[in-house]
Recover the amino acids of this structure.
């Protein structure tokens, strides 16, 4: 026989009675629950007088409990909201109901020191022998609002970046044609021909346009990078003289470098560009002179910073600080300074791409950027780069340049843009190469299958309507393993590799390019064992 078991329902009722007994019989338990709550908990009577406040209320609003008790709930609201809240409170008292968190009760609250902050409020009520009391549960949602704002801003910047990158890609195709034919005219026109002066001016404009597209690519994080391990202190010391010339004699430049910082992995040319852009921005903010200070330091990012900054991982960072004693910025300007083409300078004094470029460089390097500024109190930019323990490497830019870049091999050119394709053909024929051309991958496959001789190189655009350059190369190389491949694109190598369109380590040339650059790259690929 089994022992008699008490029904589960009976056990549940017994436990519920025990809990109620504990709660109703122990004031200490209730007080402990109130005092350990993560929310501010307040109770007010029908007249709005505060009759109960827990410890979190003191921390959140900056008042002592003695100051809170007996005061009105409106004292915890901004002045502009108090009158309306009195009416809202009266309406609630007439028709009380429970209002849980998250149903649109986002409000502004006011601390004792006058500062305002966003809160979320849920309400409940209790009827007693002394009347009805409203209980408010208040959560400080400053951090949540900050993250929401950062997320919206990040999405906005990402959308602008995609647009900018796409524009830069298409524009680079046009610049390839303009600068390519322009340089061919310079090479062929006789000395003294007036067309030379016109062509030189066209090429100058093309170079300026190319610089703008590179800035757009930097902002959109699609710029080609050559990262290596570098010593930030050595880099800053190396450009100090150039910075002095850049900012002028009426501005003092101070370098305060911490010798104990770790190394970083980044493209040194891009880091230099970021520092130059910040220096120019500071110079323009100090028309009557002033001081620019550049510092380095070690930083450990964790806790509140990583919790309130999107995409920032906890860890050790190298910090580069650029500060000035200039005019400073208001909050609205500060929120928009990294947007491309946003500028407060006079017409013709800036493109609005300087700080956008800095933003893109830092983000593409895996870092974070933070700015603090007030009107009349100068501006400080903090650039955080992940610290690494590897030893700094020598510059990889000291490559030997091949002076002979002509050839007689057969090259298959595949480019869907008619203008760019015709230009490339003209460039290659001018260098002595035998050229086959195709406007699509399918046409290229047919030409390759029907060609009797050896095709030394496939020169193909990366993105095409029918098949990608990589898909085409895989097909052709499978039947002709000796064929070399060189990819062309208006995007950068980093972009096409990161998006999975191409594999790392491929031969790549970004548009626009000159005949000389194309010739050198072809010989580099063809002559490589």
């Amino acid at each position: 026989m089994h022992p008699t078991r008490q029904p589960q329902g009976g056990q549940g009722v017994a436990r519920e009675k025990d809990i109620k007994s504990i709660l109703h019989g122990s004031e200490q338990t209730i007080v402990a629950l109130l005092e350990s709550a993560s929310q501010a908990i307040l109770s007010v009577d029908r007249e709005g007088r505060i009759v109960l406040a827990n410890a979190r209320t003191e921390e959140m609003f900056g008042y002592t409990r003695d100051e809170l008790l007996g005061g009105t709930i409106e004292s915890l609201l901004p002045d502009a909201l108090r009158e309306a809240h009195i009416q809202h409170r009266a309406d609630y008292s007439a028709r009380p109901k429970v209002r849980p968190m998250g149903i649109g009760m986002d409000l502004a609250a006011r601390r004792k020191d006058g500062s305002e902050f966003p809160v979320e409020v849920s309400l409940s009520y209790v009827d007693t022998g002394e009347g009805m009391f409203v209980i408010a549960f208040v959560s400080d949602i400053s951090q949540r609002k900050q993250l929401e704002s950062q997320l919206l801003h990040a999405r906005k910047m990402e959308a602008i970046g995609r647009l900018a990158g796409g524009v830069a890609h298409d524009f680079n195709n046009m610049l390839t044609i303009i600068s390519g034919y322009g340089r061919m005219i310079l090479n062929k026109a006789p000395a003294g021909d007036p067309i030379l002066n016109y062509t030189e001016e066209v090429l100058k404009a093309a170079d300026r346009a190319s610089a703008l597209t590179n800035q757009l690519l930097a902002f959109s994080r699609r710029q080609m990078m050559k990262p290596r391990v570098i010593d930030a202190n050595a880099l800053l010391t190396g450009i100090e003289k150039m910075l002095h010339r850049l900012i002028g004699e009426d501005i003092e430049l101070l370098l305060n470098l911490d010798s104990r910082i770790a190394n970083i992995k980044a493209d040194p040319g891009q880091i230099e560009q970021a520092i130059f852009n910040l220096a120019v921005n500071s110079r323009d903010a100090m028309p009557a002179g002033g001081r620019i200070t550049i510092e380095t330091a070690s930083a450990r990012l964790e806790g509140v910073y990583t919790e309130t900054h999107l995409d920032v991982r906890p860890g050790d960072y190298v910090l580069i600080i650029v500060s000035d004693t200039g005019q400073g910025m208001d909050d609205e300007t500060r929120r928009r300074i990294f947007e491309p083409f946003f500028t407060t300078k006079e017409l013709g004094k800036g493109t609005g791409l300087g700080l956008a470029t800095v933003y893109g460089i830092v983000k593409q390097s895996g870092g974070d950027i933070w700015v603090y500024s007030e009107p009349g109190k100068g501006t400080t930019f903090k650039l955080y780069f992940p610290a690494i323990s590897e030893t700094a490497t020598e510059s990889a830019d000291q490559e030997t340049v091949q002076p002979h870049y002509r050839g007689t091999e057969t090259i298959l050119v595949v480019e869907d843009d008619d203008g760019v394709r015709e230009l490339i053909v003209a460039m290659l024929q001018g260098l002595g190469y035998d050229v086959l051309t195709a406007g699509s991958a399918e046409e290229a496959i047919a030409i390759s299958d029907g060609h009797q001789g050896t095709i030394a190189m496939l020169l193909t655009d990366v993105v095409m309507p029918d098949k990608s350059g990589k898909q085409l190369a895989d097909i052709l190389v499978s039947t002709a393993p000796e064929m070399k491949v060189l990819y062309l694109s208006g995007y950068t190598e980093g972009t096409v590799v990161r998006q999975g369109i191409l594999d790392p380590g491929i031969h790549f040339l970004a548009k626009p390019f000159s005949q000389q650059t194309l010739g050198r790259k072809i010989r580099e690929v063809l002559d490589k064992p």
Summary: The first strand starts at residue 40 and ends at 44. The chain is about 45% helix and 20% strand.
